TrEMBL record:
It is a multi-pass membrane protein. It comes from Paenibacillus kyungheensis. The keyword Cell inner membrane does not apply. It is found in: Cell membrane. PANTHER family: O-ACETYLTRANSFERASE WECH (PTHR40074:SF2). It comes from the Bacteria. InterPro entries: Acyl_transf_3_dom. This is Acyltransferase family protein. Keywords: Acyltransferase, Cell membrane, Membrane, Transferase, Transmembrane, Transmembrane helix. It holds the Pfam family Acyl_transf_3.
Length: 399
């Protein structure tokens, strides 16, 4: 989920970067739709909310695929340094935003030390934070992913074996979760097994395979992406049917579980379709690539801030929130929330850079500060002389 992508940048943005921006958008939509369900209660509105929610349920799988795709490119990385870097990059902001959510909203009713610790470990301070807990684990498993890459490169035929073993193991996990964790009234906490990466491991393996044999993967996607559209449409109908079978009167978006085969197949199909879309953008040199690149840079931090931004948006719209037609409200709320999410992290980054610059300046010895200032003045003087000389030369040439 990091904004840093080790993949080679052929143009403005890489395939994983584009996929991460779409995944962040999906997270914001999921948060919005949960809020909308509290304000819109007609049957038609609930159906619309449920359909849209199933459509954007690709966020975590696509993040995992994109991160694994990037990690498979790494070679000879010092593991302890890498983990320390990712801890600062991911866990640092996560803890800061967890503190903000616990203080500002206290959504988990944190009244004891254990409840605070549990909220931090399980990502319960805001609805979207559990993603971070789950996705950070993929960085801890870098040696395992690297070993998988070498195993795949040893012999192309190993890919088939890896796929078969992954499907068998994952089928067992899905079966266990469906029977023992999903809707378990006696042990409701078991549903939080989705915080563990291996519950989404099939997307990590797919990302590694796609990255390791990228040319073959691209060729495969280009051959089947149009066939994936009708298949995706049929799977989309199936996941919607499953969600609404629980009843519209008591519609709960948590019933749209990631961990069921219909949703897994639907998400894999979406990954194929979206990857094909990213390849087309890159091959055509689309001007939108630069925008995707900028968004990908702040994607992780904007995701952390998204629930805070959503609460600001709802407060800003105020009493009119429930009176706006659902479709229009979705567009308005998404636009404002997305803007707030990225604006907040951009401003925070700017403030942090200014503070760090002041600390670095104050930590320098006085003599070094004077020397630095003299160098700056001297550089400015040289720059001015250079500009003047350039202008004089241009004027003489024109004459």
């Amino acid at each position: 989920m990091s904004s840093t992508s080790p993949a080679v940048r052929v143009s403005g943005a890489t395939e994983p970067e584009i996929m991460k921006t779409l995944a962040v958008s999906a997270v914001i939509w999921q948060l919005m739709l949960n809020v909308m369900l509290l304000h819109y209660h007609s049957t038609a509105q609930k159906i619309e909310i449920g359909i849209l929610y199933d459509l954007v349920k690709f966020s975590a799988p696509m993040f995992i695929f994109a991160i694994a795709f990037d990690l498979a490119k790494l070679r000879d990385t010092h593991y302890s340094h890498y983990v320390w870097h990712k801890t600062k990059e991911i866990i640092g902001p996560y803890l800061a935003w967890t503190a903000v959510y616990m203080i500002a909203f206290n959504a988990g009713h944190y009244s004891t030390i254990w409840s605070v610790v549990k909220g931090i470990l399980l990502g319960g301070a805001a609805p979207q934070l559990w993603y971070t807990i789950m996705m950070f684990q993929i960085h801890l498993l870098l040696p395992l992913l690297t070993g998988l890459v070498f195993f795949l490169l040893k012999n192309k035929k190993n890919t088939i074996g890896v796929i078969i073993i992954t499907i068998i193991i994952y089928a067992g996990l899905i079966a266990w979760y469906s029977i023992y964790a999903f809707h378990n009234q006696e042990h409701p906490g078991w549903v939080q097994w989705d915080r563990l990466l291996f519950m989404f491991g099939i997307y990590a393996v797919l990302g590694v395979i796609a990255s390791t044999y990228n040319q073959q993967w691209r060729a495969l996607v280009e051959r089947i992406r149009w066939w994936a559209l009708p298949v995706g449409a049929l799977l989309f109908i199936l996941v919607n049917h499953e969600l609404f079978s629980f009843g519209l009167d008591t519609l709960n978006l948590l019933d749209a579980s990631y961990l069921k085969w219909s949703m897994v197949l639907f998400n894999i199909t979406l990954i194929i379709i979206v990857y094909g879309f990213t390849v087309s953008l890159i091959n055509t040199g689309s001007k939108s690539l630069q925008h995707f690149k900028f968004i990908a840079k702040y994607a992780f931090r904007a995701y952390l801030a998204s629930y805070f931004a959503l609460q600001l948006t709802v407060a800003l719209i105020g009493d009119y929130f429930s009176e706006i037609p659902l479709g229009l409200n979705l567009l308005i709320t998404f636009g404002i929330t997305a803007f707030f999410s990225f604006a907040i992290v951009y401003i925070v980054e700017w403030i942090c850079k200014k503070i760090m610059a002041l600390f670095r300046k104050s930590s320098l010895p006085t003599s070094q500060q004077t020397t630095t200032q003299d160098n700056v003045v001297g550089s400015e003087a040289l720059a001015k002389n250079s500009i003047v000389n350039s202008r004089n030369t241009s004027a003489a040439r024109d004459k």
